[in-house]
């Protein structure tokens, strides 16, 4: 049985490969990459495949039995790109497809969820067996802002007192690897949330504890937070997406208490404090 992973040179894709290898998976693994030269260090067969080129994707997926479709990073273009992958997979004879969706995709208040909902529908309509990996937030998404918070003296966001059930990116990669290599996941939907949910005030308190000085959480209205992100150099679409996601968190959009993630990886999920510690090391 041949396994394939799209976006294999990305942060998540590389971790999925590492998890499969760590678990001693013996099946052939194919990595699909837009720029195969960037995957020269990966211990898998690498084939060229761009989400925008359905013919190339079909050729890259020849002989593949199970595919992990890692969602495109190009927000706004995802549905068309994912449709290409799904149609190419079906044409190539792929039997099962797993997809990295978003937590509670069907009810999520986050704007990001719209393209995930559409992709899930395309996968269900494809006729292939599927597994929907509804990933919660990566704790690293917030940890990336720690240097700026230390410089500014405050951690800024727009999530209010919304509780965030995030996990480390590696946790989600291990779950994907377990689903790819294991039986019994056909037509399953997994809500993947981290244990030990926290607010951004608690996240800032953890930064403060490790920094040895007070780094308070400063909550801004969504529009003001988006404007602040633009002012520090983020592109407007990305700033708007991050601000919308924080606003969605305030409405419970990043919270979940399902045990699916810990069960799939066979251990507790990585605590927020561990990710903060690593980011500040």
Automatic annotation (TrEMBL):
Transmembrane segments: none annotated. Residues 7-181 form the NAD(P)-binding domain. It comes from the Bacteria. InterPro entries: NAD(P)-bd_dom (IPR016040), NAD(P)-bd_dom_sf (IPR036291), NmrA-type_oxidoreductase (IPR052718). This is SDR family oxidoreductase.
């Amino acid at each position: 049985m041949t396994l394939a992973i799209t976006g294999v040179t990305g942060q998540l894709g590389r971790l999925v490969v590492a998890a499969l290898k760590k678990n001693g998976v013996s099946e052939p693994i194919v990595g699909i990459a837009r720029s195969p030269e960037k995957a020269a260090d990966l211990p898998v067969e690498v084939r060229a495949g761009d989400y925008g080129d359905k013919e190339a994707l079909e050729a890259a997926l020849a002989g593949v039995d199970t595919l992990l479709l890692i969602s495109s990073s190009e927000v706004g273009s995802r549905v068309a790109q994912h449709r290409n992958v799904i149609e190419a997979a079906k044409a190539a004879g792929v039997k099962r497809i797993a997809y990295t969706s978003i937590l509670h995709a069907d009810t999520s208040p986050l704007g990001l969820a719209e393209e995930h909902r559409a992709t899930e529908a395309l996968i269900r309509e494809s006729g292939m067996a599927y597994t929907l990996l509804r990933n919660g937030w990566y704790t690293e998404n917030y940890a990336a802002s720690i240097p700026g918070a230390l410089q500014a003296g405050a951690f800024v966001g727009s999530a209010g007192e919304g509780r965030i059930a995030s996990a480390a990116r590696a946790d989600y990669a291990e779950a994907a690897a377990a689903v790819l290599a294991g039986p019994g996941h056909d037509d399953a939907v997994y809500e993947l949330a981290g244990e030990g949910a926290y607010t951004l005030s608690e996240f800032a308190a953890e930064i403060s504890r490790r920094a040895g000085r007070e780094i308070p959480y400063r909550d801004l209205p969504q529009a003001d937070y988006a404007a602040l992100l633009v002012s520090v150099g983020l592109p407007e679409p990305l700033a708007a997406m991050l601000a919308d996601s924080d606003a969605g968190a305030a409405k419970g959009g990043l919270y979940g208490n399902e045990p699916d993630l810990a069960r799939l990886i066979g251990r507790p999920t990585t605590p927020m404090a561990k990710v903060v510690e690593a980011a500040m090391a």
